[in-house]
Amino acid sequence: MKCKGFAHKYGDHIDTDVIIPARTLNNPDPANLAAHCMEDIDKDFVRRVQPGDIMVGGLNFGCGSSREHAPIAIKASGISCVIAKNFARIFFRNAINIGLPVLECPEAAEEAQSGDEIEVDLDTGTIRNLTRGGTYTATPFPSFMQEIISAGGLVNYIKSRGEGSQP
Amino acid sequence: MAMTMTQKILAAKTGLPYVTAGQLVECKLDFVFANDITGPVAIDEFYKMGADRVFDPDKVALVPDHFTPNKDIAAAQLAKKTREFARRMKVHYFEVGRVGIEHALLPEKGLIKPGDVVIGADSHTCTHGALGAFATGVGSTDMAAGMATGKAWFKVPEAIKVTLRGKLRPYVSGKDVILHLIGMLGVDGARYQSLEFAGDIDSLSMDDRFTIANMAIEAGAKNGIFPVDGRTLEYLSAHGASPGVAYTADPDAPYARELVIQLDEVPMTVAFPHLPENAKTIQEAEDARIAIDQVVIGSCTNGRISDMRAAAEILKGRTVADRVRCLIIPATQEVWLQCVEEGLMDIFVKAGAAVSTPTCGPCLGGHMGILAPGERCVSTTNRNFVGRMGHVDSEVYLASPAVAAASAVTGYITSPHSL
Ligand code: SF4
Q: What is the ipTM of this complex?
């Protein structure tokens, strides 16, 4: 699977409160969440983002709350994948579970600037910055995550194993 | 094979003789919970998985604490969805009037015990590590899978060992210890790792331990954990919980890093906006002469009875400064009642503070005390991110209940010693 789009770059420690502020969580509809994504640090993001675009972060992206609303908001806004230097643990897990690809790649995250055109091959973890000409390789997903991803997220993974229902 | 405390628990619940850092394990869960924000998302995912029953109703709880008492129609709908699911699945549920903030309530109800593996769809689930359990926050989909299957996968974490030595000085509390530690580690200093506490923990009350474990996530940690001692066992029996299994780290357990904190040298500490790692000593904070508009004393970090006592000790016979709104929120009904019985409510009301029924409320900028642009709040909560408690141009300073109460009295960030 490939993603291609323009970069929206942010700094270190982007927390879940700025990704999706708590005041909007009384309506967990993805469209509502997408309408408020990043608004506390980047009012224009929602207006600028195009389907397929790529979000780029620094260190500890997604730190803070466990709200799954954060990766849902990013995904529903049209972002196809997030590249960061590294991710906070719960955000990383949630993103995988809801099917938002997240790639750890310090060099790609460092060199990308907002507006750069970026292409990502999720199968190989190859990231290409078409504007700057750089090619990078992200840390590949650990095998258990690949299983969840190939099942289409945790819901399908559990469903395929038939757990939790009446025998 | 030598293991940390966390690794021993994960090995036991996976049925393996030992586990090592980095290993992926599928663990049996002892307790699974969510709140009124994360619960509804988990409920949808639960049904999408094709599940129609929870693995064990006695090991699942839904705690409507964030936007309750319902702040608006949308929040009321979330609460309703949570309530109806809880009834249908016959899981633990606490209605307004009985509910408290999840991380204060569940231990109080005797639902968590040493050696348990606990997941909660809330990042501060790490609080329960104070009881010697492995407890970690997950998202709604993981919580849904946990409810359905009674299992969750984890990557076995390595640990940072934090040895505490000595005794805290007057007015210095668990909150100061954890703010000080986060100041040393940074907000990602323990990313993916356990914070294992050791040393002279007997000098710390259970409430202090809950506060310290609560903010492990603010250093990026997967969990925070305390060894089980006499105080833990006392707490468990007072709350009708079983003693569980007390695991201890092997003396030669491998640690990624070891730190020692001299408790007698920990100063009262305030975390400045907009990250919990911006730790300043009370002296630095006082010197900055920061005028404040609001004080919040409560939350899963500092809404327990010792926090209320610490605030009351300062507020007794004093009044809140004219320009300040002081909100006090006992974390559970039991804490509330104890405040009444000990005469603390009297002190709070006479001082000019507003006391609320248990709720997360202002901690996450939900309701009950939202900040306007330019306003500053001293809060005993755990996060001071941009916009956390209201407008993006407001500021949150994290502190202990004693410092928060002293600041309410003067209208500036103030040490209790300066009153
Ligand atoms: S009190 Fe604050 S940090 Fe604690 S559970 Fe509630 S919202 Fe989260």
A: 0.91
